[in-house]
Design goal:
The complex is a heterodimer of chains A (211) and B (544).
Chain A lengths: L2 H13 L3 H33 L1 H8 L4 H26 L3 H31 L7 H4 L3 H36 L9 H27 L1
Helix pairs in contact in A: 2-3, 2-7, 2-8, 3-7, 4-5, 4-8, 5-7, 7-8
Chain B lengths: L11 H5 L3 H5 L4 H29 L10 H20 L2 H14 L8 H23 L13 H4 L4 H28 L12 H32 L13 H35 L6 H14 L15 H29 L8 H24 L1 H7 L3 H31 L5 H27 L14 H31 L39 H14 L1
Classes of the chains: A mainly alpha (211), B mainly alpha (544).
């Protein structure tokens, strides 16, 4: 037996241990760790907003509300297509699953693209930690942009990871790995995607709307 | 229950072979446990050597063997390595990994691949931390307090990244254990029949999953602060360094329970087996583990009484700190009551367990001095804190780890060790430990500050005693290491159940076969039904 084969045999033997509900349970626990991760940033935001109310309000006007809104719509739509993909996979509709997973991927990429445009504009204006316009800001405003880049940056990394997950699901779906009996990975990947969406649902009003 | 050796399944060592691949790519929880054991013992050895260097430097005021800068780096590395690479994973990743599935009557953990990944994350994090040695190591102390961690000119980011990876490895283990306990219990193994070690690991896992991400992101924020200057811990940009302390301790206080809860779990097993008594207060101990897990999230402020916290917040945190002592005391009380009128056998694991009760009780009670607002102002940042911390973390966690290691060593390796030398090691450990840290309590109460390279001449006598103690302690540990290594070459073969334990791991051969058991597992009684077993033995004697 080659190395690859013996590893595959070993993996196959161990894979059924957790089972469908065990795997889902594991994913929920993982999502809790993600929530705790972002909870720290939300706490920091809450504390500093209370301390620098005026400055945060001033600084938040610099964000592009239109692009933020569009991005929110894009991400919510992607959650919708992801939910449709899970539904299609559960019913064993392979080509429908492919369609919805592809749509989710494209919407995810669109989100990152719009985010990159926003970042680009900020960087162009020197509004980034260490940038020329940033240095001229007062203390609380600097902090707002520091938090803005940290929170949206970490979120964008999660979207990026989510896209990789969805692409992996797409490949496995095209290879015919999923059926109405076995669709756990699609469902679990979907859970992750929804969480990433959910975090944005909180980031958007905090950063763009109330400031 | 009957011995199963003659059923003839080969042990997991024989079955899997001994090639490098059979270890590095294994998905077997037992092998992963051994991989962790070897790595953690190696790190313990290294961080222990650093501790001896620290103590040697402190033999005289001023320079003894190193200058102040080297001293700062060495105590930082000692702390960071001991905390992140030794005592956090010590019990769950080694004994837990090896035993949790067996005690549940399962073939493996729920996510074997994640389990292996956790070891690789551990190794990556450890290697990153060690790499900083080449660049002259970090001098912030293991707590990485801002603003110093943001300003100092060493490789803080590398250490932070290492700690982040180690955190992920810890999360993976915790997540895996929670799902395993819920999903993979053998038929008949109800929650009320779970061994208390499992309850303790379960409570630990909850903290690992909930708290570790908080320190992960906090350390990343320090990294971002250093690289980009995002301002969150920098007052010049509107940030606040005290917020770092809040975030850091929000994890790092629960983390001490990540460390101690598994050791408490070990205690419940070792004491019942070597006293041959049903545990006193099964549900009280199980519930107190969960209570500790819950309350541990509400006490972090007691690290910050002198960081400018409001009096009201201080009083609340002080109250909650006293509150968390209650479930801990319930456990100590229950173990003591289990010993009462037991058939105590003073084998090596039992000696360590008795060590634990004494040392950890001292550690726990001195914690109350520090949790009380007025005394803390006096004792904060003195050797009293250092001694308290080591009584709980070394006297508690490490002693519990050693108790468990000796208790389950025959199960894990199939070899019996020299009981006599094991006992000698445990006694030396006890003497050395107290000689090291009692002088530190005294010095601390007299005002000797922690982390200082230099000190006033009147402290020298106590420092010398403490250093001599650390050497005795080291000799005790080397003896113990020699005992277990010797057993691998010269030890007699262990029977399946050398101590007469009743939990599932003792019902399979030593070492267990690849799938842990020789036949289907069914659980018919609780883990500590020694009264029932004894009654049965007596009946058999009479009828014979």
């Amino acid at each position: 037996m080659s190395v690859a084969e013996s590893i595959r045999a070993m993996v196959a033997e161990k894979e059924e241990l957790a089972g469908y509900s065990g795997a889902k349970f594991g994913m929920w626990l993982f999502l809790i760790t993600e929530l705790m991760l972002f909870a720290v940033l939300f706490t920091a935001y809450g504390v500093f907003r209370a301390l620098h109310l005026e400055a945060f309000h001033e600084a938040h006007r610099e964000l592009n509300l239109t692009l933020g809104t569009v991005n929110t719509l894009v991400l919510i739509t992607s959650s919708f297509t992801m939910a449709l993909a899970v539904g299609a996979a559960q019913r064993g509709r392979r080509s429908l699953t492919t369609l919805f997973l592809s749509a989710t991927t494209l919407l995810g990429i669109a989100f990152l693209f719009i985010k990159a445009v926003e970042y680009g504009a900020k960087i162009h204006h020197g509004l980034y930690p260490g940038g020329p316009a940033f240095q001229a800001l007062e203390a609380g405003e600097k902090l707002f942009f520091g938090l803005y880049f940290t929170m949206t940056g970490l979120h964008a990394l999660h979207v990026y990871a989510g896209i990789l997950v969805v692409l992996w699901l797409l490949v496995r779906n095209l290879l015919g790995h999923f059926s109405s009996e076995y669709f756990a990975p699609v469902e679990i990947g979907g859970l992750y995607w929804h969480l990433v969406d959910l975090i944005w649902i909180y980031l958007f009003p905090l950063l763009y709307l109330v400031g | 229950m009957a011995m199963h050796e003659h059923h003839g399944l080969a042990s997991f060592y024989e079955e899997g072979g001994n090639s490098l691949r059979s270890w590095l790519l294994t998905l077997d929880h037992k092998r992963i446990g051994i991989l962790y054991l070897v790595s953690i013992l190696a790190m313990f050895f290294l961080a222990g050597i650093l501790a001896l260097l620290i103590r040697t430097e402190l033999l005289t005021p001023g320079k003894t063997i190193m200058d102040a800068e080297a001293y700062n780096r060495i105590f930082t590395l000692h702390g960071a390595l001991m905390i992140f690479t030794v005592i956090i994973p010590a019990i769950p990743a080694t004994l837990g990994n090896f035993l949790l599935p067996i005690m549940l009557g399962a073939k493996d953990v729920a996510f074997p691949r994640l389990n292996l990944a956790s070891w690789y994350f551990y190794m990556a994090g450890t290697v990153l931390m060690m790499l900083t040695l080449l660049g002259g190591a970090v001098d912030t102390g293991w707590t990485f307090y801002a603003p110093y961690s943001i300003l100092t000119r060493n490789a803080v980011v590398v250490v932070l990244l290492g700690a982040f990876l180690l955190g992920m490895s810890s999360i993976f283990t915790g997540l895996n254990f929670i799902v395993t306990v819920h999903r993979l219990r053998a038929p008949g193994l109800t929650w009320g029949r779970l061994p208390l070690f499992i309850w303790a690991l379960y409570a630990t896992s909850i903290i690992q999953v909930l708290a570790t991400p908080v320190v992960g992101i906090t350390l990343l924020l320090v990294g971002l602060e250093r690289i980009l200057g995002i301002g969150i811990f920098n007052p010049a940009m509107g940030g606040d360094p005290v917020l770092f302390q809040h975030f850091f301790w929000f994890y790092s206080h629960p983390a001490v329970y990540i460390m101690i809860l598994p050791a408490m779990g070990v205690m419940s097993e070792v004491i019942t087996v070597h006293a041959r008594r049903p545990i006193f207060g099964y549900w009280a101990i199980a519930a107190s583990s969960l209570a500790i897990a819950a309350i541990s999230f509400l006490v972090w402020g007691h690290h910050m009484f002198v960081s400018g916290m409001s009096e009201l917040a201080g009083a609340i945190f002080s109250f909650l700190t006293f509150f968390v002592a209650i479930p801990t005391a319930i456990k100590v009380f229950s173990w003591t009551m289990t010993l009462y009128r037991g058939q105590i056998r003073l084998r090596t694991p039992m000696l360590y367990a008795l060590n634990f009760i004494l040392l950890f009780t001292i550690g726990g009670l001195t914690g109350l001095f520090l949790g009380a607002l007025s005394t803390d102002v006096h004792l904060h940042d003195t050797y009293f804190v250092v001694a308290h911390f080591h009584y709980t973390m070394m006297g508690g966690v490490l002693t519990g780890f050693l108790a468990g290691l000796f208790h389950w060593w025959p199960k894990m390796t199939g070899r019996l060790y020299s009981e006599r030398w094991g006992q000698i090691g445990a006694v030396l450990y006890f003497l050395g430990f107290n000689l090291t840290y009692i002088p530190q309590f005294i010095m601390g109460s007299q005002g000797m500050p922690r982390r200082y390279w230099d000190y006033l001449p009147e402290f020298q006598g106590l420092h010398v005693l403490s250093t001599i103690g650390s050497y005795v302690l080291a000799v005790g540990l080397f003896v113990s290491l020699g005992v277990i290594l010797h057993s691998l070459w010269k030890g007699r073969k262990s029977p399946a159940n050398p101590w007469g334990g009743l939990t599932l791991e003792w019902q399979t051969s030593s070492p267990p076969p690849l799938h842990n058991f020789h036949g289907p597992v069914k659980v018919e009684h609780g883990p500590y039904a020694y009264d029932r077993v004894q009654a049965k033995e007596e009946v058999e004697e009479v009828t014979a």
